[in-house]
Write a structure and sequence with these properties.
2 strands; two-stranded antiparallel ribbon; mainly alpha
């Protein structure tokens, strides 16, 4: 069995960093912005260093040891037809997923049963070019576009095969593969997490997110729209860090950014609930300045709220049911984040989710978001 622990860890960190980079929505030139830029530059540099260890020197293929690992995983996730038709599961031949997980995916309808194979083959065929494009990117907008194209493909797979969510959860809860035995890793921490997580709530959040982003809305392909929308947030980075003081820049919200930065600093002994509420309050004042300022609301609406897919996603992600699930899940996993009893997060979550409905969030400060809502509602009617 091939394994290179260093490379595996770097691959995991790479995807974690890509996820973080893709989910950032514009931040904070003054010294405040300079300090933030250094953080993001450090993240980008780490990603690029990791890519150089994964890709060949010419950037067109994986390093030999990485390709060997991918081929090994592919052999497990893409069994040949003879093995696939065999009703009896051999744990030795299915050491990666295990028999229970293999059975879960085999029970999915149509091509969805081949989802694990589809994912690894998509990665094998497309990851080298995506990583090369990231290396060649000259702006945050370009880097986020590359990252979101990768994320978009994952979400599309889940949109087409919703049963994959339940199958994956079942795989985690009933894992009987041999990875821990073959690798020599202790599975105690894995079992502790799996046995503690509220999987029903986690399932509800994932399916709620898929309800928000999948399919079409008024003729628009929502996964594509939302992918482009997230990538467009890179414009904030580029303008802010290049000192361009426009509506699509955080420079105009320097005071609010400083306040949020100060509120984000946690000092030992602080009451956690008060700390979180204070940070959320400062963050929402920053969002209010960026989103609702009458002088810039028109440009902001054009950039971030010009699609009915965005409106639908924001509304579905901020329902009372979804907010309840967020609070419940945060409480459930708090023990893995910070020691001590979980703080009450209901007020913070309610406040934070307000910006997902900009028309009511901005109130009387601007009507551009209400007008967009009216357009979407009229088309739908």
């Amino acid at each position: 069995m091939y394994h290179n622990i260093g490379i595996k860890k770097r691959i995991m960190k790479l995807f974690a960093c890509l996820f973080c980079l893709a989910s950032i929505a514009g931040v904070q030139s003054s010294e405040v912005f300079d300090a933030y830029e250094q953080q993001y530059l450090a993240t980008v540099e780490f990603i690029k260093e990791t890519i150089t260890e994964i890709l060949s020197d010419d950037g067109t293929d994986f390093q030999p040891q990485v390709r060997e690992l991918i081929t090994l995983v592919e052999s497990q996730l893409c069994p040949d037809e003879d093995t696939e038709d065999n009703a009896e599961c051999d744990s030795g031949s299915n050491w990666l997923l295990g028999c229970k997980c293999t059975s879960e995916f085999a029970g999915l309808e149509g091509n969805c049963k081949n989802t694990p194979c589809k994912v690894i083959q998509h990665f094998k065929d497309n990851a080298p070019k995506a990583m090369s494009d990231f290396m060649a990117a000259n702006s945050y907008e370009e880097m986020l576009t590359v990252a979101m194209n990768v994320v978009d493909e994952i979400w599309r797979i889940l949109c087409e095969c919703r049963g994959v969510v339940d199958a994956t959860i079942s795989c985690a809860r009933n894992y009987d593969g041999l990875v821990f035995i073959l690798s020599g890793f202790d599975r105690t921490n894995f079992d502790e997490i799996v046995n503690h997580v509220d999987w029903e709530t986690a399932r509800g959040i994932v399916h709620g997110y898929l309800d928000a982003i999948c399919g079409e809305e008024n003729g628009e392909d929502c996964p594509a729209v939302l992918s482009n929308w997230r990538a467009g947030n890179g414009i904030f980075f580029d303008n802010t860090f290049n000192g361009v003081d426009t509506c699509i820049s955080m420079i105009r919200a320097e005071k609010e950014t400083k306040a949020e930065t100060k509120a984000s600093v946690y000092e030992e002994g602080m009451d956690m609930e008060s700390y979180i509420d204070g940070w959320v309050d400062a963050h929402m004042k920053l969002e209010e300045k960026v989103i609702c300022d009458a002088d810039c609301a028109g440009e902001m609406q054009e950039l971030m709220y010009s699609s009915c897919c965005v409106k639908r996603a924001g509304e579905r992600l901020s329902t009372e049911s979804m907010k309840g699930k967020y609070v419940k899940f945060f409480k459930n996993i708090w023990r893995f984040i910070y020691p001590g009893e979980a703080p009450e997060l209901k007020n913070a979550v309610n406040r934070f989710m307000q910006m997902f409905r900009p028309a009511s969030f901005c109130g009387a400060k601007t009507d551009v978001y209400r007008e967009m809502n009216k357009q979407c509602n009229a088309i739908k009617a």
